[in-house]
Amino acid sequence: MDIFEKFDLVEDRTLGYGHCGRVVLAYSKKNKAKQWAVKLFDDQSDQGEKEKLKHLFTKEVKIRQKLNHPLIASSCVALKYDTHFAICRQFYPNGCLKEKIKSVTEEEAERYLSNISSALHYMHLKRICHMDIKPANILINSYNEAVLTDFDLSMEIPPNVQKWNSYGGTLAYLAPEVSNPHGCDPFKVSFTSFYIA
Predict the structure, then answer these.
(1) Which InterPro entries match (predicted)?
(2) pLDDT-based confidence at 193, cuts 50/70/90?
(3) Per-residue pLDDT tens for 21-67?
(4) For residues 30 and 10, is the Cβ–Cβ distance under 8 A?
(5) pLDDT by residue (tens digit) across 4-24?
(6) Burial class of residue 182 (count of CB atoms within 10 Å of its CB; 0-12, 13-18, 19+)
(7) Sequence-distant (≥ 6) Cβ neighbours of residue 10 within 8 angstroms
C-alpha cells in the first residue's frame, strides 16, 4: 500500500521538523473529516544517511508497536518504500507544548508533568527510554493532557543494566548527569528537561 493511496498530504501544512524529516498534515481519503499527522523521513541521496534513516525508522516502528498507553501518541500505519519512509499517527489540533509554553498555567504545568511522568513510568516498566524529552515532543490532546511522541531516538535497555552511557537527544534538553563518563541511570527523570516547572 502506498501512503498516497490512503492519505491526501497537505504539503504546505508542516506541523513540525526534526532531525529525520518533517511532520505534515494529512486527510484520510475515505473520511475527509479524519485528520492525521504523517512523519516523513527525508529521502537522503547519500547511502550512509539512507541507512541511518532506515535504522531510525525501523527502531521507532518496533518501539511504537510495544507501547499502548493513553498518553503516548499511537500510530495507525508505518510504510517503507525505496525512496521514503512514513509513520502516520493521530493529529493533535492543539499542537505541541513548544507552541504554548509561554502561556502554560501552574495548574497545567502540574498536569503535564503528571501526564508525562505516567507515560514515562509505563515506558520504563517496559525498559524503554525515550531519550529526547522536549516541548516539541509533547503534544496536547483535546482534554488538555500532555501526550508523548517521537520515538526514533528511544532505546530498549537490556535487563540488569543499571548504568547507561550512550545517549542521543537534543543537547539543550539533556540532563547534566548524561555527561558522566561512568554512565548514569537511564530511568531517572530530569524535570528540568520539561522546561515548564
Answers:
(1) Kinase-like_dom_sf (IPR011009), Prot_kinase_dom (IPR000719), Ser/Thr_kinase_AS (IPR008271)
(2) very low
(3) 889 898 888 888 888 888 888 766 677 777 888 888 888 889 999 99
(4) no
(5) 677 788 877 888 887 778 898
(6) exposed
(7) 24, 25, 26, 27
Identity of residue 36? W
Secondary structure of residue 76 in the 3-state scheme: strand
Q: Which residue has the cell 482534554?
A: 143
Which CA distances in Å does 120 have to 2, 38, 63, 113, 181?
A: 33, 23, 13, 10, 24
Report CA Rg, the chain: 17
Q: Which of 6, 134, 17, 146 is nearest to 77 (CA)?
A: 6
Q: What is the DSSP letter of 42?
A: -
Higher pLDDT, 17 or 99: 99
pLDDT at 197 over 50: no
Do the Cβ atoms of 152 and 57 come closer than 8 Å?
Answer: yes
Q: Tell me, what's the pLDDT at 44?
A: 64
CB 56 within 8 A of CB 44: no
Question: What is the DSSP track for 97-165?
Answer: HHHHGGG--HHHHHHHHHHHHHHHHHHHHTTEE-----GGGEEE-TTS-EEE---TT-EEPPTT---B-
155-173 residue pLDDT tens? 898 888 877 776 677 777 7
Ramachandran sector of residue 13 (left: φ over 0; alpha: ψ -120 to 50; beta: rest): beta
Q: Which residues, other chains included, contact 111 with Cβ-Cβ below 8 Å and sequence gap of 6+?
A: 144, 145, 146
